[in-house]
Amino acid sequence: MKYVLVTGGVVSGLGKGVTASSIGLILKACGLRVTSIKIDPYLNTDAGTMSPFEHGEVYVLDDGGEVDLDLGNYERFLDIKLTGDNNITTGKIYQSVIDKERRGDYLGKTVQVVPHITDAIQEWIERVAVIPVDGKDGPPDVCVIELGGTIGDIESMPFIEALGQFSYRVGAGNFCLIHVSLVPVLSVVGEQKTKPTQHSVRGLRSLGLTPNILACRSTTELEENVKEKISRFCHVPLDNIITLYDVSNIWRVPLLLRDQKAHEAILKVLNLKGVAQEPALGEWTSRAALCDKLQEPVRVAMVGKYTGLSDAYLSVLKALVHACVACHRKLCIDLIAASDLEDETSRENPENYKSAWKLLKGANAILVPGGFGDRGVEGKILASRYARANRIPFLGICLGMQIAVIEFARSILGLLDANSTEFDPDTQNPCVIFMPEGSKTHMGGTMRLGSRRTYFKVEDCKSAKLYGNQSFIDERHRHRYEVNPNMVQQLEDAGLSFTGKDESGHRMEIVELPNHPYFIGVQFHPEFKSRPGTPSALFLGLIAAATGQLETLLKKGVPKTWSLSNGTSGLKSHRYVNGTKMANGSLDGIYCNGNGIHV
């Protein structure tokens, strides 16, 4: 087994996740089988209880693992299926060691960070690295490990010590360390400054790790004399200094690595040059070129609770891009704070209220993503009502589906107090209720999580056609409330159609309005399985409906894999906030006008 470790220095948010994903992709293109591990040094057991404002979205895996959003990047780039064990946290490591101590596995020894914690980290990496994630038999060839945070952080010290021991134990020919650092350009002098990288590498060496390759983030390509200076002071060969400068879209990052022969440097360190082939990235190159050519816009209004941080909806944004490029449209998305649509805002902040409604009414499609808590719920209900009444294409995900059902009950059934027991425990018309198997005392890992099967109950419906007229589908879930099965008949008699249900037939999974151009709500999260070449069926349907292509799409059927003639995905890589260009560490930037983002 070969290991590639990606670390970061100077500042956080340099784009280690995209860099690690791109490295994995280019190695896969060389004919190698690749898996990935993300190390997060926080004490949480997993990302499940963390606010999206703290750490971005919680990405959900097939096995129900609630993990860091970087694992979403790995899955999308490499087209693999990871498990919860591919995300290591301090909480998981300490819990496993404490459990062993309680069982008496250490035979009376004093349990310490070294060797017990560090050994547990190494054992975890070795165990997970050999698990196949590409659907094939046998272990992968290379494991790409990303160490979260920044070198020097106190919480990452046990991991750095463990990885130092690990590199020595597996041997130099089996371990490659790539350090991502920052080379800033000071506006006053316009010069690329190498000192931050020098200090970062010095700190890394002092902790027992020596970088084989330096990946330097900068706004522009590194000048030759700057690379020579970094090589001289950091003791890294000149050919192993890679520039990660701003590019037109995220899909160009692997091409950037290939053009600088990063794969050759990695393969040389890992003694794989005689095994691997030249990277086959023809399709990826065409995909990146196509991304830059899109001009005709489609406007999508996303009404959510966490609009202050676009990473809170990262997978949704990616899925929208995948669908937009498949439909040959440039995505312009407006993030609307749901609370800004409410009547209370019209009194307290009329400008925000007016702006939010202007964006909503100017959209070609409306999307309401998942969320928790009652803030902004009434605004989401208003957005659903506007989409239903004005026949605007609508997609509701998780909570978005639930509020669509609540709005229908209020407006069509006349049940004005219809609500979810999450927001009003005493409502007389509970359209959405707490699931019986859920826990009201423990938050972490107690939801209905992971891949679950949905059976189509109505053959002639849009969702079934979009999924290729399959009898069932498997999608990922993350919820603890569900549509009240006791109200289903009443809602269906009024015109709502529950076209998809779970295996029991009592849990509602998909809801549609048959007489609407496109009005679909789903309890699951289809965004988590969207891929660049295979956009999510429901996101594809939403964009197709918004651009007048849905009828054609449904007639010819949705292919399992979209060829380049249909398009793939891409994101602009600079950020503009109120007209100001900002650095974007994830290499996955956005265009922002203060109210929304343009991708």
How does this model look, in words?
Its EC number is 6.3.4.2. Residues 2-272 form the CTP synthase N-terminal domain. Keywords: ATP-binding, Glutamine amidotransferase, Ligase, Nucleotide-binding, Pyrimidine biosynthesis. Belongs to the CTP synthase family. This protein is of the alpha/beta class and 599 residues long. It contains 20 helices and 27 strands. Strands 19-18-21-22-23-15-14-12-13-27-26 form an 11-stranded mixed β-sheet, sandwiched between helices. The protein has a 7-stranded parallel β-sheet with strand order 5-2-6-1-7-10-11, with helices on both faces. Helix 4 packs across helix 5, helix 5 crosses helix 6 (157-170) and helix 15 (377-389) packs across helix 16. The relative contact order is 0.12.
Core attributes:
P-loop_NTPase; globular; EC 6.3.4.2; 599 residues; 21% strand; alpha/beta; glutamine amidotransferase; pyrimidine biosynthesis; 20 helices; eleven-stranded mixed beta sheet; 27 strands; ligase
How would you summarize the topology of this molecule?
Blueprint (H helix, E strand, L loop, with lengths): L1 E7 L7 H14 L4 E7 L11 H4 L3 E2 L5 E2 L2 H9 L8 E3 H14 L9 H17 L12 E6 L9 H14 L4 E8 L2 E2 L4 E2 L2 H12 L6 E6 L5 H11 L6 E5 L7 H7 L2 H8 L12 H12 L3 E8 L9 H13 L3 E8 L5 H6 L1 H12 L3 E4 L8 H13 L4 E4 L1 H13 L7 E2 L9 E5 L13 E9 L5 H5 L5 E8 L1 E3 L4 H6 L3 E5 L6 E5 L6 E4 L14 H10 L3 H7 L18 E3 L2 E3 L8 E2 L4 E2 L1
Parallel strand pairs: 1-6, 1-7, 2-5, 2-6, 7-10, 10-11, 12-13, 12-14, 14-15, 15-23, 16-17
Antiparallel strand pairs: 3-4, 8-9, 13-27, 17-20, 18-19, 18-21, 21-22, 22-23, 24-25, 26-27
Family: Belongs to the CTP synthase family.
Function: Catalyzes the ATP-dependent amination of UTP to CTP with either L-glutamine or ammonia as the source of nitrogen.
Keywords: ATP-binding, Glutamine amidotransferase, Ligase, Nucleotide-binding, Pyrimidine biosynthesis
